[in-house]
Amino acid sequence: MTEKTDQPAQPAQPEAPKKRGRPPNPPMPYPGKAFGIETAEVMEIPLKKIDLDDERFQLRVSLKPELLVDSIKNHGVQVPLTVRKHPDSGKKGRYQIISGFRRSTAAKMAGLVTVPALVRNLTDEEAHVLAFCDNENRKTLNDLDRANGIAKLRQAGKKQEEVAQLYRMSDRQLRRLQELLDYPAVIKDALEYDAISTTAATVLMQ
């Protein structure tokens, strides 16, 4: 008779943690062509031909260009600006900034005469979305900047639901961000310099 040997007990495998909530749905793609990329070209554009004071598509509440001046003096502008030919008939030959306000301002402070820029054929709506997406992709926006962008679209005549669609946000997210613009200056300053979070600011205002 074959003698049975006791096999060591196998340790129980831990169960995989259950995922809570529904999986996030990927945002719907933006309709239409790739925002003028088919006709875009990178050019060296004289700074004097760019309207640096035109803040129509500027989202950031505070640029802090001085933080880039030394880098630009040593290495130049590494990421081209995005511009379009100025739509104003009285400004023929000039350019309007879509994204790169901080870089262009720092380049001027550093003494540069020209900057690399991607010239794109964009509508106002496409320019607003591109400015938002470009800054979001480079993680340069805070919630106050996002609120500023929403306010500019609303001032341009966009309805709340249209802004929500363009920025891929829920109505609740939009309203939460818009409330930040009504906060006292001391709280907005704290948000701008990352001294407190948006959640903490909301709690303080309750």
Shape: globular
Radius of gyration: 24 Å
Tally of strands: 4
| Average pLDDT, all residues | 82
Write the H/E string, N to C: EHEEHEHHHHHH
The fraction of residues assigned to DSSP E strands is 5-15%
Helical percent range? 25-40%
Number of helices: 8
Residue stretches low in confidence (pLDDT < 50, at least 5 long) are 16-32
Largest sheet: 4 strands, mixed
Judged by helices, strands and strand pairing, the structural class is alpha+beta
Kindly report how far apart the N and C termini lie: 80 Å
Strands of the largest sheet, in order across it?
1-4-2-3
Structural summary, described in words:
The protein contains eight helices and four strands; from the N terminus they run E-H-E-E-H-E-H-H-H-H-H-H. By secondary structure, the protein is of the alpha+beta class. It has a four-stranded mixed sheet with strand order 1-4-2-3, with helices on both faces. It starts with 40 loop residues before the first strand and ends with a helix. The relative contact order is 0.13. The model is unreliable at 16-32 (pLDDT under 50).
Explain the layout of strands and helices.
Elements: E1 41-46, H1 66-75, E2 81-85, E3 95-99, H2 101-109, E4 114-119, H3 124-137, H4 143-155, H5 160-167, H6 171-180, H7 185-192, H8 198-205
Parallel strand pairs: 2-4
Antiparallel strand pairs: 1-4, 2-3
Helix pairs in contact: 1-2, 4-6
Overview in brief:
The protein is built from 8 helices and 4 strands, in the order βαββαβαααααα. The chain is α+β, with helices and mostly antiparallel strands.
